[in-house]
Design brief:
Blueprint: H1 11-20, H2 23-30, H3 33-44, H4 47-62, H5 72-106, H6 111-129, H7 133-142
């Protein structure tokens, strides 16, 4: 048997409940569940990722309340959009790092490259050896 939908609440009532952190606060948030799920699906176009975004939205929204005068729907939509943008930036950075790494792996090094790399390592090692003992120890422990 389905639980009946909670009665509609005005924004001030819902905001008050959000700040109280009660079970009613959760109901107030879930009142927006259907349209927020549709928004997440429109933004990411993948059902599983949309669910992840929706869960993250609930976590963020559960920890705070909308600013005074901001309608809850707008606030929740803003949280969702920001989470999707953050995910896209993160995915873009990962993809970029993977491409750079794969290019480096795919490019065979020449003998001249190897000699130059070894020469740079020698210069670096000499510089580390010239450091005072305490600083040298820190560098060696770190690397």
């Amino acid at each position: 048997m389905k639980n009946p939908a909670p009665p509609a609440m005005s924004t001030p009532d819902t905001t008050r409940l959000l700040l109280e952190g009660s079970e009613d606060r959760i109901r107030a948030l879930l009142e927006h569940s259907d349209w927020l799920k549709r928004l997440a699906r429109q933004l990411v176009r993948d059902g599983a990722e949309a669910e992840d975004v929706l869960q993250e939205t609930w976590l963020v929204a559960g920890g705070t309340a909308p600013p005074t005068g901001v309608p809850e729907r707008s606030w929740l939509a803003g949280i969702t959009r920001n989470l999707v943008r953050t995910r896209r930036r993160h995915e873009g950075r990962i993809k970029q790092r993977e491409e750079i790494a794969s290019r480096a792996e795919a490019t065979p090094s020449s003998a001249a490259d190897d000699v130059a790399r070894i020469e740079r390592q020698k210069i670096l090692l000499e510089g580390v050896e010239e450091l005072p003992e305490a600083q040298r120890r820190v560098i060696l422990m770190r690397y």
